[in-house]
Amino acid sequence: MPLSRLFLHCGIAGWCIEILFTACKSLQRHDFQLVGTTSLWMFPIYGCAAFLRPLFGITHKLRLPLRGTLYALLIFLGEFTSGKLLAGKDLVPWDYSRHRLRIGPHIRLDFFPNWFLAGLFYEKFTLNNGFRKL
Length: 134
Fold this sequence. Notes:
Blueprint: H1 3-25, H2 42-47, H3 53-59, H4 64-87, E1 102-103, E2 107-108, H5 112-127, H6 130-133
Antiparallel strand pairs: 1-2
Helix pairs in contact: 4-5
C-alpha cells in the first residue's frame, strides 16, 4: 500500500478510535448519549503512524511486551512533539495540566496502556494490510 494511502488510513483509524474512546469516557459521567469528540488537528498526528511501518516490519518478531512498550514510548514522543508544535500556535486540542500522572500539559502517563494497545493495533493493521480489509 502506498505511504500516502496508509497515512490516510492511519489518520481515519486514529480519529475513529479517539471518538470511541471519548464516547466511552462519557459513561463515567453517567452521560448515556455517548458523544465522542476529536479535532481536525489529530488527523495528521494519527496519520504519522504510517511512517512507523518500516519499524513494525523490524520489531514484529520481538516479544509483545517489548513491542508494546516501544510503541507506547514512541507515541508519547509523538504526542509531546506535536503538542509542543501546536502549543506554539495555541492550537493544542488536549490539555492534561489538571491530571496527576502527567509530564507537562501534553503527556498523561496513565495513558500508557492505551498507547501500548494502539501501537500493537497499528502494527497489525499496517503489516497485514488490515485497513484494506476494513
